[in-house]
Amino acid sequence: MPILIVGSLAFDDIETPFGSSMNTLGGSSTYIALSASYFADKIQMVGVVGSDFEAEHFQLLHDRDIDTKGIQVIEDGKTFRWAGRYHYDMNTRDTLDTQLNVFADFDPHIPHQYQDTGIVVLGNIDPELQLKVLTQIKKPEMVILDTMNFWIEGKPEALKETLKHVDVFILNDSEARLLSGDPNLVKSARIIREMGPKTLIIKKGEHGALLFTNGGIFAAPAFPLESIYDPTGAGDTFAGGFIGHLSRCGEVTDMELRKAVLYGSAMASFCVEKFGTEKIAALDMLEIEDRYDSFLELSRIDV
């Protein structure tokens, strides 16, 4: 099933206690697309970049058979840039610099050949733009949405309107508490699901993820790693693995949703092992399936 991904493409300058990486390819849609490409046959991207987004950057996406015809290149413009420094615990970070550049005027127009896409993934952009994307898609079979504190605080009503049209909502624990107004994640999940999305995933970083559906609650562990170099993009990489599996299996049941959460977690665990997209751009399915099996073994009990 084809996947349409709409979000940011960026260059990141990343500092962690374990090293740094400058001018690193990033952006929400980049991580999502690369991660999903290991599972899905057809991935289409819509976004905007400047003329500093060179052939080598497009080639990295093309090497994963990702369709980039929907990426607009603004001549003499500069691509969105972000710089950040992570603290020692890797759970908190300081934003050192943000330059929206061409992304400041991003106005997504979905190419005609993309408008029949079955699965739509909306990265954490302005909820008004997310809704505009959905008005251009004919009959999406599934809509997945991500967001961030900035939009929850700055455009809560627009976000709630968009959520009425969403099937799967992915956010982290602090965002869930902020949106729901309740500190308890189970209560938060009920409140948010009443806003529209019947499938909700709350990411908890090093403590795993929670899946809420009509069938109940599923808790996925985080993978225990000795070396974590860079958590940038891990959440978007999770989303890519999650939706990639659903696209591959072709059905949405509680069991497949749970498997999708584990595949998403597996992909995110690879992402943090190197800086930027370096690790997730160079995997193979044997590695991925082995990591997925390791997740299954983490909580397995033979009775």
From TrEMBL:
Keyword Repressor: no
Pfam families from the UniProt entry: PfkB (PF00294)
Domain (Carbohydrate kinase PfkB) ranges: 24-278
Cross-referenced Gene3D superfamilies: 3.40.1190.20
Organism: Pelodictyon luteolum
GO cellular component, one term: cytosol
Keyword Transferase applies: yes
GO molecular function, one term: kinase activity
Keywords of this entry: Kinase, Transferase
The name this protein goes by in its record: Sugar kinase
Stored InterPro entries: Carboh/pur_kinase_PfkB_CS, PfkB_dom, Ribokinase-like
Superkingdom in the source lineage: Bacteria
